Amino acid sequence: MKQTTNAIVMIRPVAFRMNEQTAVNNYYQKVLDGLLPSTVNAKAQQEFDAFVEKLRAVGVDVTVIDDNLETDTPDSIFPNNWVSFHENGDVALYPMFAENRRQERREDILDTLEEKGFEISNIMDYTSAEEDGIFLEGTGSLLLDRANGKAYCALSPRADEELFIEFCEDFDYAPVIFEAFQTVDGERKLIYHTNVMMCLGETFAVICADSIDDKKERKMVLDNLKEDKKEIILITEDQVNNFAGNMLEVRGKDDKRYIVMSASAHQSLTPKQIAQLENHAEILSSSLDTIEACGGGSARCMMAEVFLPRN
Questions:
Q1: Which DSSP string do the residues of 268-295 spell out, in sequence order?
Q2: How is 221-273 classified by DSSP, letter by letter?
Q3: Were both Cys, which of 125, 197, 250, 257 would link to 245 (CB 3.0–4.6 Å)?
Q4: pLDDT in tens, 155-204
Q5: How many whole angstroms separate alpha carbon 57 and alpha carbon 96?
Q6: Who's near 272: CB < 8 A, 6+ residues apart?
């Protein structure tokens, strides 16, 4: 199984804004005072287009799909939360915490991929869990080590343990389960998505180990990464706040590997951390300030990796 892919899907925003429904447990969202919604969306579109251009310039196969105005989907720019694509032709659809995010799931996006020659053989649909108030938000909640058959999950209101275990059984992953916290107004609160505090590359892992308060859990997570011979690059909680955990390794032209992150994530890294990452792949960063502030998500959340077979 490959850990990285050359193909990704990205959704261009048409009505991007701060989503009040996700702000209840995504503490990275901020209100940008004095900006009209249309200005926020225009800025997000500029950031999105510049980001796509940078990815395509190095040979990443980006399928861009426009969001539509019929649905009120301010977070559609983060498709990795509702869908994941797998090498065996499976597509998984996930139950979403925010009601207005459930509209993001669109069959026509799957049709577009099939038109591009990707093969979909089976759809694993977990979305009925929403009726029971149970959620698991795609590769936001699940960090898949596809090559080593492990799935990492920081439990939160958006990542249910039983559903995560069910996913692991269905897709044949060994579950690595823990809790990760951040300090909000002096209190330790659960981090809403695993991919905010951790990134898995082919030969490295970026992780904020300090966010795993339970020492046994922390050791267990780090032991799993060491066992799979990944170089562990530790980041701080302050760097997590700058989205340094929200990176993704992708492949460009000639299978060259890139570690994709936002400009704020890149700027928050120390020279030593940058050198460690550059031992594994070239860094590609792009400014996503508006998207990060209003959306509370960053580069990794914007890219849904496509591992489907191609005919």
A1: HS-HHHHHHHHTTSEEEEE--HHHHHHH
A2: HHHHHHHTTPEEEE--HHHHHTTTT--EEEE-GGG-EEEEEEHHHHHHS-HHH
A3: 197
A4: 999 999 999 999 999 999 999 999 999 998 999 999 999 999 999 999 99
A5: 33
A6: none
Identity of the residue numbered 137 = E
From residue 7, give the alpha-carbon distance in Å to each of 85, 99, 264, 270, 274. Answer: 10, 29, 24, 30, 25
**DSSP 8-class letter at 302:** G
Pairwise CA distance, residues 186 & 126, whole Å:
35
Helix (H) or strand (E) holding 43: helix 37-57
Strands (E), 73-228: 83-85, 90-93, 122-125, 142-145, 150-154, 174-178, 181-184, 187-190, 198-200, 204-207
Chain mean pLDDT for the chain: 92
Q: What is the largest CA-CA distance in the chain?
A: 53
Q: How far is CA 175 from CA 57, 145, 155, in A?
A: 36, 10, 12
| Terminal Cα distance for the chain, rounded | 18
pLDDT tens-digit map of 6-50: 999 999 988 775 555 554 454 444 555 556 677 888 889 999 999
Interatomic CA distance for residues 239 and 6, integer angstroms: 27
One-letter identity of residue 3: Q
Q: How many helices (H) and strands (E) does the chain have?
A: 10, 17
C-alpha 247/C-alpha 8 separation (Å) is 14
Question: Which residues make beta-bridge pairs with 204?
Answer: 231
Q: Which of 150, 147, 143 is closest to 172 using CA atoms?
A: 150
Which DSSP helix (H) or strand (E) runs through 218?
A: helix 215-227
